Amino acid sequence: MIKFPPNLKKGNCIGITCPAGFMPKQKAQNCIKTLQQWGFGVMVGKTLGSKSTNYFSGSDEERLNELQAMMDNEAIHAILFGRGGYGVGRIIDKINFTQFKKRPKWLIGYSDITILHAHIHSNFNIATLHAPMAAAFNNGGNKNQFIDSLHKAITGKKTSFTCAVHPLNKNGNATAPLVGGNLTLLTHLIGTASDIDTTNKILFIEDIGELVYGIDRMFYQLLRSAKLQNLAGLIIGSFTDTRNTERPFGKSVYELINEIITSANYPVCFDFPVGHRNENYALKIGGTYTLKVGKQKVQLSAL
Amino acid sequence: MNRKNFISALLPLATTASAMALAKQNIFKEPSLKTAPAYLKKGDTIGICSPAGFITLEDIQPAIAKIKEWEFDVKIGASIGKRDFTFGGTDEERKKDLQQMLDDKKVKAILCARGGYGIVRIIDDLNFTKFLLHPKWIIGFSDVTVLHNHINRNFGIASIHSKMCNSFPVDWNAAEPAQQNSIESIRKCLTGEKMNYDFEWTLNNKTGNCTGQLVGGNLRTIENLSGSKSDLLTKNKILFVEDTGEYLYSIDRMFWNLKRTGKLAALKGLIIGGFKTKKDDAGEEFGKSVETIVLEKVKEYHYPVCFDFPVGHQKNNVALKCGILHHLKITEAACILKEL
Prior knowledge:
heterodimer, A: alpha/beta, 7-stranded mixed sheet, 6-stranded mixed sheet, 8 helices, 25% helix, B: alpha/beta, 10 helices, disordered N terminus
């Protein structure tokens, strides 16, 4: 049985930490302000705006220790990650989940955070939140429906999202637990202790900055590791900033995906608002959703 | 290509358990017998085809000339000169060409013309029945890692990791000795010479001696095969890896993949080949070298590790017999990889 962390109430505290790439403190100011306006306390970790001079927000040990402390601290009711980038995979096997399993709290983020989502889903069956991170609150983002969906998710309000139909969609309905995240990381985790079982689940996938042939190769890995065969549904999010080789691949990302899953007997929707752009709804990993892919609209509703 | 048949062929696998459970149960038993295909004699035929990227007939002329100089015949496959965007023909065309090379008893070795990307798109549609009755050498690297690992994992048949047609110089005499030697080593492999490589010592090596079956290839491709039926088993083996054009952070992530999929824990030895890295983006400096990335992953293991072995996307890329027992000796005086 899936375990949901408790919903947040006013006065609860949200911790902000950066378990992967470096983020200047300035970029999280709007996020902090907004969380406070929502009525939450905010505890900012040292990894945000740290003195690190390289890619990471701190050494492996610093990032691990801060994440561990926030997971174990009973006064922190949810953890919002400053940003992704790269780095969670370097510390995942050193995190001690003992306290977290006893007192789950919402872990909020995406991209590199996919590792935490997948690891926790697979090993502990505790729900986590695939959602915008600190930088998404900038440039007026704090007022949009995507940040609002994060607010709704952590306060326990039911969410339901719609998007436009796409010509490649496969119509149908499915009700099942939702899993997914960043394609590069989902494939990277195959065969490890953080690998997810996708059988009878709705899988969502997004990515950024990949070569088109690389996306093809990763979808073949999903196919060949039996991740696409018994899905309840498939949600294809955005693939932003994709690049092509000198000799172009000859197909768009959505076309190549559609070819690989051409015989799928489950509903599939393309261009769902999840990924590395403003349009990025908060989705509960492990939560049960109803996906309706129809002629007029696509709808994903939490049960 | 009708992918419908493909996907439904895989369905029974997935109905009983997840991919992860499959991996754990290890239902794809590793073959115990390691078979080396017959070595080539003068007059034998080498087939050339392009199962991945596109290449012209003109581009493979230097390779054809050299192979004839070695006194082998050449059979040119239909995929040479074919093009479907980045591919050497459509999936169907590339598959058909490689299939007939596998099935043709006269072809004693298959030299892949180049790498690129594409073998994983056809590997599950290939029929290895005749190949298993009459094993032959499969030659190449980079994307051809898919074939090496698939064949090693499923059939235990040896193959040759080496340069391909696109690396044969137009003017042999103007080529650097490293390139000439690398290409010559393919002939030596094919004719049954025992390979014996002496290579440069580096400061970061971990010394030791070991004996094991040699396996490996392109790191990105090895990661991409995780969880599939072409996934490499590395226990008690000597693993070599190389890659090109990757960011340091990505190389780090791939070594974590090797480690977290259990591929580093029970090795006999680890050989790090060439890693031409992509420069870090400004402000995103990774701060660790390839050597540091590797050494931190293997610090708790006691097997020999060496760096800068001449294998990879570079002039110095010697032919290696995958699936064959080798002895690796790393001391401060000598670095030797020797076929047993």
